[in-house]
Structure formats: structure tokens, C-alpha cells
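Hi L., both proteins are below.
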Amino acid sequence: MWSHYSDYHKGVVVGLTLPEVLVEGDRECPGEIVIIRDKYIHAVKYSKNELRLPLIQDRDHINNYLKICLQKSPQWKYEKEKRIIVVSSEVRKSGCRVVMSNKYITKVIFGARVSVAQIDETINEIGRKDIIYKRAIFNHGKFKLTLVPI
């Protein structure tokens, strides 16, 4: 995962515990999108066959994009991945960005090549000590990473 998704081990994985509604309460912008589980949070579909759908601009093109964004090879099934997908036209209509409070963060795992300065800056920005913070380290000579507490 690290070399594929996080700029060759320079990224961060954020673990979340999500309630039914992600954006609630005090809002910086009255037009903010409320993310509801069944509308925006989608389970990834694992398939041996590559999905090929027409991406023409018709009434079904958003659904076709969504199907493509949610497909992965079965070798990744152990991840049990879910993705938050918000169509940019919905964000533009609201005039706001989609915001999620840091109260939903349960853990943060830093890639093996994230600098100590970046780690410190991120932890300070989150501002919570009750989160599990870990860093991946290389096991030289093996295709394996070990997660160590920070």
C-alpha cells in the first residue's frame, strides 16, 4: 500500500471511526455538504475482471465513474477498503469544501520516509493525544514493514 498510494512511503494513513453523519454541528459555511454513510461512503468492489464502461456525458456518467473508482483486484480484498467519494459538482454547488472533524480520527500511521519534522507538525496540527500514532519502518532484506509506536 505504501509504495502505491503514498508517494513511495512519504504519505500518511488515517484511521477513522465514522458515525452516520460526518459533518455536523458548527459549520464554517452554511452550505457545507453533509456526508451520509449510504450516500458518500462506498465499499470497494473486488473483481478479477477490469471494469470497462463508457465515460460519455449522459445521465449515467456519474454512476459509471463511481463504479470505476470503487473497483480493485481481489488481491487487495483483505483491506476491506471504503472510500468517501463526493462529486465535485456537488461541492461547487454548495460553495464550500467538504470538512471532517478530527474527532473521528482513531489512528495515524506515517510512512517510512516521512520526516520527523513532518510527523511533529502533523501531530501538533491534529492536537490530540488520545490517537494512536505509529510509523512504518523498513525491514531490510524483506518486503515487509513494521509499525512502531511514536
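That was the first. Here is the second:
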Amino acid sequence: MVPRILPRSAVYEPILATGFVAVLAAEVLKLTYAAPFFPVFMGLWLIQFAMIKLFDIDDFADNFTQYDVFAGKFRAYAYLFPFLQIVLGLAYLAAYNAQAVSIVLLIVATANLIGLYRQYDNAPLFGGKFLSAFLRTPLRESAIAENVLMLIMALAYLLTHKLVYGF
């Protein structure tokens, strides 16, 4: 079975809500402190998604190990993943080597999407007690949407940086 890349619109509601909050906050920071919008948005969005995972990290790890390429082999990676998202988000916010951060994000999102594609039929349809209650959407489809957005954001940053700065 080929995964449905564009699931029901309800799947996007939590992702759109976190994106909306990140857009508003990034715009305020841009206007108030002349902070660059795109990296600030990316940083806030990543931190928000990491925070959701940290509310019940055991639940997240149990589900993540079922489809992630790295977490399936190294369970500790499932526990480290939300912290990796926080570090990447903070690096964007601090404007710390955003090109390298984007490359890491590109690798992480691609690995997650490969794992989701390979395990689509076996990936948890719904997350555990917390993720299902919070997201109110099928976990595998929201994970696909989250990782596609991370991939697009990383690529967009790298491409715009290349066009603007030439490297």
C-alpha cells in the first residue's frame, strides 16, 4: 500500500495551530528585534513539536521506535530525539550555523520519512494515550506531515541561503 501523502484536513489542524503560533511569535520578534523571520519561525516550530513529545516521552518513544530508522535500532535515540529537535530549534533561534542545522534537519526528516514509508502499514495508526489525545489525529499521518514540513523548511532555508549569499 502506498502511503497517502495528503491525509484528511483534520490531520493538519494541530500542525497548523503550532505553525500559526510560531508565525505570530516570529513576526513579533522580527518587528521588535529585527530578527530574521524564517530561522526564528523554524526554531519556534521545532521547539513546540519537541515540547509535545516531552509531555509523555515514554509514550512517544514507544511509538517512535516502531517506524523511525534510527530509533528502531537504538531505542535511546527515541528518547534523545525531542532534545535534538530542541537543540536544532535553539540553534535556529540563536542564528548558530543555520546551514549546518538545516543539513542535520534535512537528514533527520528524510530518515523519518524513509522509516514511515517502509513501515507505513505497521506504524502505529494512533499514538499512545497522550499523543492521540493531544493530536486527535492518526499518528502516522501527522508524523508524515511533520516530517514533510521539516524537510521543506530545511530545503527552503538552504536554497534561499544559496540564492541570497551564493554559498
